[in-house]
Amino acid sequence: MMEYTSGNAIVDKMIGVDFTGNVIPSAWYKTVVNKKTGKPYDIAITLLSDIVYWYRPKEVRDELTGEFKGYEKKFKEDLLQRSYEQIEKQFGYTHRQAKSAVVFLEELGVVKRIFRHITVRDQQMNNVMYLELVPEKLMELTYPEKHVYKNVHASVPKSTQVCTDSDTGAYKNVQTNTKNTAEKTDKDYHISSYRDVREGVMKQIDYDAIANDFPSKQEQLDGIVNIIIDVMHGNQRTIRVNKEDVPGEIVREKFAKLNMFHIQNVLEGITESAVKIRNPRAMIITSLYNVADTMDIQMNSKVKMLLKKN
User: Fold this and answer.
1) Rounded to whole angstroms, how far apart are CA atoms 112 and 132?
2) Which helix (H) or strand (E) holds 43?
3) What is the pLDDT of residues 167-184, one digit of tens each?
4) pTM of the complete model
């Protein structure tokens, strides 16, 4: 048998070594960048590479003839199921690192988080996270000089009911369908994208107008907005308001009525307070919950004062 050589002993030893798995295009180090640091977002790049691997089609060939028969997906369901805990274990990241990277990829537009209530083996599982890859955006990130991609997949249908992205991620005992085949799955999913909820909230409160009025309070404004999105994107049965458990639906109904003036009022109240708050998130939720009533009281007081003067 003829032996082949490349002229380099080390390279020769690599002949026949067949690596499989994730691939990272060099362009991502320029297109998947942390806006704050201006540097490649390594964790997000690694995670995107893994997501792309699972969405890459698998060739199907005849076992005897080797004839190409077609393609099939690597996972069972219509989308790739993932939890933050699975990402943590696979790559050794912390929960915060895993979640931040997923949120970054969603804000970048290359991934969508979908949360579903599903039934597996007659057991109800809530808030199971799926990651939908957006091929057209992926092509832009991978081939920034071209921006051309004709094979666009249809997006997943959306429902009006939103689900939560809890602090612990998706249901921890759910194993990804890339490795585990569920015997029974309820196809009547409740689906909502975090990105869609975010866009709805930003429009509801007229975010750009508030940001324009409070240019020096951008960080506080974004904090308030993120809390509103978390609440509206959740399906918690109860939410802590003013040290009491209030039914989640009631809180979400209140938040669904918030407008620009409510947010401005809360923002002014936070910036005027000189007291160090131990739990700012709880304080903001309570403020947002009470703001409409508070503003009505303030207005009534002003009207009464004017009537007295007159």
Assistant:
1) 5
2) helix 42-55
3) 333 333 334 444 333 333
4) 0.51
